[in-house]
Amino acid sequence: MKRQTNPKYNNFDMTLEECRLVLDNIDGLIITNEAGKIKYMSPSILDRMDKRMGLDKKSQIAGQPVLQLHPTCQIPAFLDSGQRETNTYYFTAGVATVSRIKRVNGEKRGIGALEYDFFVDDYQIRNFLLEIIKLADGGQIDLTESIEEIKKRLSKPEIIKYKMSGIIGKSPAMKTIKEKIFAISNYNSTVLITGETGSGKELIAHAIHDISRRALMDMVEVNCAAIPESLFESEMFGYTDGAFTGAKKGGKAGKFEMAHKSTLFLDEVDQLPYHIQPKLLRVLQEKSIDKIGSRIVPVDVRVIAATNKNLKELVNQGKFREDLYYRLNVVNFDIPPLRERKEDIPEMVQHFIARFNKSLNLNVEGVSDEAMQLFYRYRWPGNVRELSNIIERAMTVCKSDILSQRDFRELADILQRDASYEDYDGSTLEQICMRAEKEAIEKVLAFCNGNKTKAAQFLQISRPALYYKIEKYAIDSCQNI
């Protein structure tokens, strides 16, 4: 077979024989078309069927309905369900099997779904469970929940806002951040994420939670700026039945209690009321909360905090407790603004285009070189969030499959209006005014041939004031006489 040369498959370098060898070594692999007829069965599953059902392996396999050869196969039911992928659990001929089924869609119709085994028999399942028990004994996995609690939690629809794969960028800064996330994944250390608005602090928090041992539980998020100061204590720590007038019957669980065995994300932690800060510090130290109504509740929570402010500066100003700052800042992630890692922009642009193609039902392929140059020149004060918004806005008005410069007119206008910014030397307003005043005096003196009386009249200032400014700016009043 001729090797694949299509640039679309630049990760592919296998012959037909090598492909067959790979397929033959995948345990329990079955591939069917959309009608549930066999396109491929691995030798391992044929061997098991031969032993258990007396199947003649020499008979024709390809093209037969899978249910005729494998009556318990779930692929046909899966194809009818409309699902994208699922796990299945078999008990056939006295042997338990766990497998995975995935739908396969290509440019050409033909393949419907494939199934492969996670575990080929109950012996492998038992070994897997023993490894899980070892992890639980070592504290890496929590198995203290009851079966009913697990059922209740798993029955909820899974909503994942962000995942580790959502961290886009290959710049040195982003590579370091990814490596750091993996390095701390199995620890419970408190994390402080700093960075400008829109730089991706929430994304980093979710990524840390997503690959930790706490990922089986939902992360609890709190925006510290969104909770009224009078309600902050009850929202964070909860209260017991009858704790105060108007208290909810039966009490209320606070955010820390809700995040037990999980992660609590405190966004805009700089907005944390000062009188609440000692209580948060105590929770981090004592691993327990004091609910309103005098009830101590132990909690196992990992805290991730985020801010776009300089907490150390707030400590110096007396607006944030120093001891709490150091307790939060055990592990620090400082997210660089987009303008400092513009090499990540092309990958981010493609990521957002793919996302909005799906949500807007479009088929945009990319951006033109001219449009990309706009992105490189712009300073992105709103960071990654601003880039996402601009891409989405452009895709809603785009008339072709490539986003061009005309689709980003607002961005082009800003760059044109602020073109002089690139020549700005960092002068203060006072320095700019002084330079303008000196230049004006020099021009008037030259026009008056050095006559200071006339120059003072033109400038509408007194002679002493003019002499003062000539001396202040070291103006040679005779150079143009």
Automatic annotation (TrEMBL):
Residues 167-396 form the Sigma-54 factor interaction domain. Signal peptide: none annotated. This is Sigma 54-interacting transcriptional regulator. PANTHER family: C4-DICARBOXYLATE TRANSPORT TRANSCRIPTIONAL REGULATORY PROTEIN DCTD, TRANSCRIPTIONAL REGULATORY PROTEIN. Transmembrane segments: none annotated. Keywords: ATP-binding, Nucleotide-binding, Transcription, Transcription regulation. InterPro entries: AAA+_ATPase, AAA_lid_NorR, Homeodomain-like_sf, HTH_Fis, P-loop_NTPase, Sigma_54_int, Sigma_54_int_dom_ATP-bd_1, Sigma_54_int_dom_CS. PROSITE patterns: SIGMA54_INTERACT_1, SIGMA54_INTERACT_3, SIGMA54_INTERACT_4. It comes from the Bacteria. SUPFAM superfamilies: Homeodomain-like, P-loop containing nucleoside triphosphate hydrolases. Pfam families: AAA_lid_14 (PF25601), HTH_8 (PF02954), Sigma54_activat (PF00158). Gene3D superfamilies: 1.10.8.60, Homeodomain-like, P-loop containing nucleotide triphosphate hydrolases. The keyword Transcription applies. SMART domains: AAA (SM00382).
